Structure formats: C-alpha cells, structure tokens
# Entry
Amino acid sequence: MMRLFALLLVPLPAFAECPAAPDHSEAFDALLARVQDAPTEMAARAVTGEMWALWRDAPDEAAQSLLDEGIRARESYNYLRALELFDRLVDYCPDYAEGYNQRAFVSFLREDFAAALPDLDATLDLAPRHVAALAGKALTLIGLGRDAEGQRVLREALNLNPWLSERYLLREPPGEKL
# Structure
C-alpha cells in the first residue's frame, strides 16, 4: 500500500514512457461470443465482469496504480481527485483506452456530458468494441439531447452485448429486430 501511495505522490519522470497496453483481443473475442450466447442476464453479467478485468489491465505498474487509485477516488465520490488521476494516466499512457473511458465516466457522473464525449470517442478509437464505452456514449448523447444518435450507438452496443442494462432505453420501431 505504501508503494502505491508513493507512486501517486511522485510525478512520473519526464522520460517515462508508457509501454503498449496488453493485447487481449483473442480473449475479448471469446468473451463477446460468450456474452452473446449467454442464456440469462446473470450469466452475461459474469462475462461482463471478465471484460472489465481485461479493460482494466493497465500497461505497467505505474499506469495500474493511477487507474486503481482513480477508480477508488471515483467510487468515493471524490471526482476532482479521480479526474486528476485519470488526467495523469491519459498523459502517461495516451494509447491506453481505459484511461479515457474512466475519465469519461467521471465527467458523465458530474453530468458534464460535453467533456465526456471526446473521451468516449478516444476510447472507441483505441478500442472500437469497448461495449461499456459504447453504452456510455449512447447515454452521453442522450444527455446532450442527441437522442437519435444515442439510439444508433446504443444499437451498436447491444449488437455486441444484448444483455446490457441500457437495453431498456432502446426505442425499437415496430417490427424491427435488433
């Protein structure tokens, strides 16, 4: 715990370079297939938990510490601290999608949808099948009053994971199948 605390207090050296994020694409492909075939919502939730474990696997110990501490700050409703940590994570690891996604989530919770949207776009540029970011983008667009766009993005997310809790927000035209 002391080592984690020390990592957060000491600025990253100017020469520090974030390594590439772990490549979990094969494992993620398998998880997508499993969630699409899940027989129940509870079974799908377990698979979604496994997806989160992959998304939250940071490139190195320093990035993992920033991510974990940022999540703890967010869960404690210390949104300013969480934003500070996620800013540092994105600055350090600009190619790590989850840094942007977590920062977007904090902005969303603060109802700063305009700030959340670019981070969600950055997440999806790096990880186009990040189901949670797609769902978050749909909710953010709806929060911005861009309902038709939000519905389109929600459909994209539901095509990947039909069990998302956000599925109840989908306005399905009569006779149209997902």
